[in-house]
């Protein structure tokens, strides 16, 4: 039996659910179908490495919408199902349940998969990866006081996992091949502060050496042994791997949709259009290439998934593209909320607003990078209100006096208003 839908959304994660919701909020009346390979309703991923892992949130609390929402909005959910082939010329998709669906628009929101290390295969019972809700529940069941957890990866996910494991009472060691934490995403000032913060909380951090060999012996007291490049051997009960994400772009590639060779992301423009008319993509599976610099950007974040879904919804609905917001990212580690606003780059010079205390109980500071009078990147540690005050400075490119902004005594909200009025006078 043939089926038809106006919009076929391939994937049922953050971008997919937000896209469906946004289409309905824009007044789109065509039929919408989401196809996802998991058994769960679409859910948010950020809580998986934090509240879900600590058992402070139920698995149901991560769902983006309740089941009733999809029924009320006439959005069909096909869960535990995959799209096996996509014919972009005839506008037909073949599903794993044997159904064939025709469509007017297709959106690939296929997300990504945890990058697996050959030395630490996911088939090994004592090597765990975190990407899905089921992964989080499996890891949650293993974490307990006294467990020796070896976390491979010092990026955002690795630090979140190490933080959560430590909070559950585990003895944690972080292994990062780069010379500093968050080497690709944060300035050296923040990397050093994080190192001091982690070590002050009893977490061991091994920098500059990757894993050379891995041995698993269930009969040993500590069944995991990791040999680092410098010959040092670490023993533990569990290896938790956070080695990055790979884009799920195989379906796109097989369907003739352009995929970037460097990032493996589906190439899209600012409104999520792929190389084929009527086919869109959004979320972790996508790559944008700047037409001026050829710089590639494959952004794996909660905000990016939401924003790309919003852009695609407007394109499908035939509406003008909304103005994109300033890039924003957040994470929570060891009781500290860290937020980043704007785009960082290696050539920026960061200055500190406040005191970079790594051990106090009331930690709050900001790292700010200026180009002349213009704020280009801001990092806030337990200073979300001040970061929100600075958002309009970046959005409207308002000139400010760096010395005033960096002064902890300055009431940023009031100062930003005054600076904006002066700029528009």
From TrEMBL:
<dbReference type="GO" id="GO:0016651">
    <property type="term" value="F:oxidoreductase activity, acting on NAD(P)H"/>
</dbReference>
<protein>
    <submittedName>
        <fullName>Ferredoxin reductase</fullName>
    </submittedName>
</protein>
<dbReference type="InterPro" id="IPR023753">
    <property type="entry name" value="FAD/NAD-binding_dom"/>
</dbReference>
<dbReference type="Pfam" id="PF07992">
    <property type="entry name" value="Pyr_redox_2"/>
</dbReference>
<dbReference type="InterPro" id="IPR016156">
    <property type="entry name" value="FAD/NAD-linked_Rdtase_dimer_sf"/>
</dbReference>
<keyword id="KW-0560">Oxidoreductase</keyword>
<dbReference type="InterPro" id="IPR036188">
    <property type="entry name" value="FAD/NAD-bd_sf"/>
</dbReference>
<dbReference type="Pfam" id="PF14759">
    <property type="entry name" value="Reductase_C"/>
</dbReference>
<dbReference type="InterPro" id="IPR028202">
    <property type="entry name" value="Reductase_C"/>
</dbReference>
<feature type="domain" description="Reductase C-terminal">
    <location>
        <begin position="328"/>
        <end position="415"/>
    </location>
</feature>
<keyword id="KW-0274">FAD</keyword>
<dbReference type="InterPro" id="IPR050446">
    <property type="entry name" value="FAD-oxidoreductase/Apoptosis"/>
</dbReference>
<dbReference type="GO" id="GO:0005737">
    <property type="term" value="C:cytoplasm"/>
</dbReference>
<keyword id="KW-0285">Flavoprotein</keyword>
<feature type="domain" description="FAD/NAD(P)-binding">
    <location>
        <begin position="6"/>
        <end position="309"/>
    </location>
</feature>
